[in-house]
Give the backbone structure.
Amino acid sequence: MSNISKRAKTLSLVAALAVPATASMAGTAFAQELGAVVQNSEDINVVGSIPSDLTGMAQGPDVNGFISARRGNEIQVTTENGTNTVIAISPATDIRGRGGLLGLGRTQLSADALINGLPVSVETVQWNNGLVASQIRFSNEDLETATMIRAGTGQRFAENEALIEENAAAAEALRGRVANIDQYNVMGTANVYFDTGRWNLSPMSEGELCQTAAEAEAMDNSLLLVVGYTDSVGDQDYNQVLSERRAGRVVNFLQQECGWQPWRMLSPTGMAESDPMADNETAAGRAQNRRVSVNILVSKAVEGM
């Protein structure tokens, strides 16, 4: 987390003050189903019949990341460094979850469980100048979460034109709701950071959030604005949902564990990969961009301005 410091309001803060997370998820093109990744046909293209027996095939690389696209019997896995790897799914692929909340233990699952946004560990074999998954493992808790996100986002396979049109409408709504933004001063901003594809808080982040709440509590009539962000890895629609999940997790912790009153919290929102703090071309930069910013606001009227 960065130290609390005074700084000028940014354009992203102006936008963030305007849209509640619930409206963003339910009413705009950002609320696309995770399975509805818009891909060109060239993105996933495995030629030939995928073998049903993988015995004796040369071992391929292990691939760890999250599923960023799915078409038929192929998945695209995006790793932490942003590399996309297309992997075919065979009838012989061993797909299993482990632990988590579904009570599945290590029960073997079908390929239907491989939905977008799911973090996976894949062992592969080489075939036809490509890769076939011999084994896929994931956390059942991650599967449950990805399924909940998928079920909670209502629209399916929107056309790009519709996305553009709805995003424009959302931007217009933002402009219409920030008439009083200049009534607040940003007294400080603190950031918490996240692993790729995750929104769980580390023990260090939890302690720093309560410290931020305490600093805000010492300021008369202060409010908190929470804004979630992602790096540039993955699909835009998934990143929008992920940024909202991160913001919501921070808000819940501030209210439930740090004692921050809900009425002193402005509507949280997710800004996906917009307003990066660092270069998304490097792993270090992407790590800085996977964040939630907690902004301490105080009315200018309170400060006599």
Summary: The longest strand covers residues 84-98. The longest helix spans residues 236-256.
